[in-house]
Design goal:
Elements lengths: L1 H12 L1 H12 L3 H4 L2 H19 L4 H5 L1 H8 L5 H4 L6 H18 L2 H13 L3 H16 L4 H20 L2 H7 L13 E2 L5 H6 L10 E2 L4 H30 L7 H13 L8 H26 L12 H21 L5 H19 L19 H12 L10 H4 L14 H7 L2 H20 L1 H7 L9 H15 L5 H18 L4 H11 L11 H8 L5 H23 L2 H5 L29
Antiparallel strand pairs: 1-2
Helix pairs in contact: 2-4, 4-22, 6-22, 8-15, 8-19, 9-10, 9-11, 9-17, 10-11, 10-14, 10-16, 11-14, 11-17, 11-27, 12-14, 14-16, 14-27, 15-22, 15-25, 15-26, 16-28, 18-19, 22-25, 23-25, 24-26, 24-28, 25-26, 26-28
Subcellular location: Membrane
Keywords: Ion transport, Membrane, Sodium, Sodium transport, Transmembrane, Transmembrane helix, Transport
Family: Belongs to the SLC13A/DASS transporter (TC 2.A.47) family. NADC subfamily.
């Protein structure tokens, strides 16, 4: 038994090497039982899928496999594979990452977060809502991981000011009555509002004193406060994942959708930054609201009063929490020239992307040759300004002042900083997804798979949307959302063609569903960061995340069958969908709640 245990440990240590060696061998039969080109492409796709899901190789390295495998296996020539790694979609993503780097460089994101928290106050339910609103807004523009990493320390500082030391709180959850029936635990005494703000009140001297409440009261109050603490921590990664869905640059799957649409359906120009925002922002708001209600109910209730029984202590704790927020905000000082400049360029960045071609009105792109200006062009123009715009206000006096420093001016962002902050591996991952999609298209694999999905034509499209979102939300719990959408989007596009449904009706919810990874710590980096704090357990995330997944599925289904139906004309089968299936003819579909 001991020998078996030792062997299993050794096996676990070399698991990645075994996967790298065994997977290509186990997949070899595909090359002989399927049509030649389709079999080769499926071999590469499944090989990459296994490596992505198990992370046997780094994600970016796996993403580069098409560069060597597609040409050598005769699937796609190198001159068609390599350009896929830097399409205009990658430039749009790079623009968003560079803008986020500048925002982080000058601390604008922290100012926004603290300002929102000052506005919402420190009542539990409202503070959780404030945390979620702030996190979701920032993750629309920054990476979900960076947003979570910034917000968690702020949350912990506020929580400690409200409830005191976490270790003491945990000990109070285990309070037992002594033989004389009295509690011997000394509670952490929080100072009153007057002490915090003026240090003149001697009503509380800050000295520990015996708590007069019964052990049961102490334990119940501590347990309740621990629940609220968990609610604060768990709402941040969830809000980051939800917020990332609202903009094209907010999360990688959104850009994978745009890139694969341009590859499969070149004539489809319905999805851009503006049209996506109009669709996804209301969806984000609805999901955020119902998610807040669920988290607030689960971790303390929709309670606007702080969960401390004594009125004086409650007021003191609230005052101290407000003081923590105010103090941190004051440390930032007044908005300087660099922050003001970044704010202006950030707003300009968002406005120009939104108004280029929002579809419901004529955008400014009409001023240029049709099809020449894209979101990528807009993004690169704005971020280029960051590298030469001064971080200090220019002054005419500098030219005449002999005492002034003659050091070169510092721009808002240096290329060295951009190199450090931009996750280049994600750009390679996007490119690998586009290369895989191109291979599936040209090898005929997408059509071959679609031919085997014909039985699904009997499922009503509205039900199919729910099933697609549910499946991908479950799958992405165990694999990265980028890898998940890369693997399944070509299949989903071909499924839509086969059942004569507008491809966007399946592809948009699939893309959104890939961001709904709430149940496990390993599902997304934000979940991992929150779990690493040591205050959450896996069962907390599973219990909360399961219902969050259900709420997300319902919200996406609502969006697709209401405003998205009109925005993208999902009730008809479009002309642009024919490149994938040249044998089909244009048709007007029956209502989407019917079968077939």
């Amino acid at each position: 038994m001991e020998a078996l245990n030792v062997f299993s440990k050794k096996l676990w240590c070399v698991r990645k090497q075994l996967i790298l060696f065994l997977t290509p061998l186990l997949l070899l039969p595909l090359l002989f039982v399927l049509p030649v080109k389709e079999g080769k492409c499926l071999y590469v796709v499944l090989l990459m899928a296994v490596f992505w899901c198990t992370e046997a190789l780094p994600l970016a390295v796996t993403a580069m496999l098409p560069v060597c495998l597609f040409p050598t296996m005769g699937i796609l020539p190198s001159k068609k594979v390599c350009p896929q790694y830097f399409l205009e979609t990658n430039f749009l993503f790079l623009s968003g990452l560079v803008m986020a780097s500048a925002i982080e460089e000058w601390g604008l994101h922290r100012r926004i977060a603290l300002k929102v928290l000052k506005i919402v106050g420190v009542k539990p339910a409202w503070l959780i809502l404030g945390m979620m609103i702030t996190t979701s807004f920032l993750s629309m523009w920054l990476s979900n991981t960076a947003t979570t990493a910034m917000m968690l320390p702020i949350a912990n500082a506020i929580l400690e000011s409200l409830f005191g030391d976490l270790q003491t709180l945990k000990e109070n959850c285990k309070v037992k009555e002594d033989p004389e029936g009295q509690s011997q635990v000394k509670m952490h005494v929080l100072p009153s509002e007057k002490q915090v703000l003026t240090v003149e009140d001697s009503r509380l001297d800050g000295v520990e004193r015996p708590d007069q409440r019964s052990p049961e009261e102490i334990r119940k109050e501590a347990e309740y406060q621990m629940k609220v603490w968990k609610g604060f921590l768990i709402c941040i990664p969830y809000a980051a994942s939800i917020g990332g869905t609202a903009t094209l640059t907010g999360t990688a799957p959104n850009l994978i959708l745009v890139g694969q649409l341009k590859s499969y359906f070149p004539e489809c120009d319905l999805i851009n930054f503006g049209s996506w925002f109009i669709f996804a922002f209301p969806l984000m708001v609805i999901f955020l609201f119902v998610g807040w209600i669920w988290i607030a109910l689960l971790y303390g209730g929709l309670n606007t009063r702080l969960c401390i029984n004594k009125h004086d202590e409650r007021e003191a704790a609230e005052a101290k929490a407000k003081a923590v927020i105010d103090e941190n905000y004051k440390k930032l000082g007044p908005i300087n020239f660099a922050e003001g400049s970044i704010s202006f360029l950030f707003i300009l960045f968002a406005v120009l992307l939104f108004t280029r071609d929002p579809k419901f009105v004529t955008g400014w792109a009409i001023l240029f040759n049709k099809g020449y200006v894209s979101d990528a062009v807009t993004g690169v123009i704005i971020i280029s300004i960051l590298f030469f715009f001064p971080s200090e206000c220019p002054s005419l006096r500098w030219w005449t002042n002999r005492q002034a420093s003659n050091t070169p001016y510092v721009p808002l962002l240096s290329w060295k900083k951009a190199q450090q902050c931009v996750p280049w591996n994600i750009i390679l991952l996007l490119g690998g997804g586009f290369a895989m999609a191109k291979g599936c298209e040209e090898s005929g694999l997408a059509s071959w798979i679609g031919g085997h999905l014909q039985p699904l034509a009997q499922v009503p499209p509205a039900v199919a949307v729910i099933l697609i979102v549910a499946f991908l939300a479950c799958f992405t719990e165990f694999a990265s959302n980028t890898a998940t959408i890369i693997i399944f989007l070509p299949v989903i596009a071909e499924l839509a063609i086969r059942v004569k449904v507008n491809p966007l009706y399946f592809m948009i919810p699939a893309t959104t569903g890939c961001s709904f990874a709430f149940m496990l710590p390993v599902s997304t980096p934000p979940n991992s960061i929150a779990f690493a704090s040591g205050h959450l357990m896996v069962k907390d995330m599973v219990k909360t995340g399961f219902v969050m997944n259900l709420l997300g599925i319902m919200c996406v289904s609502l969006a697709m069958n209401t405003w998205a139906m009109q925005m993208f004309e999902l009730h008809t089968y479009p002309d642009w969908a024919h490149p994938l299936n040249t044998t089909s003819t244009q048709a007007t579909l029956p209502p989407l709640n019917s079968t077939g």
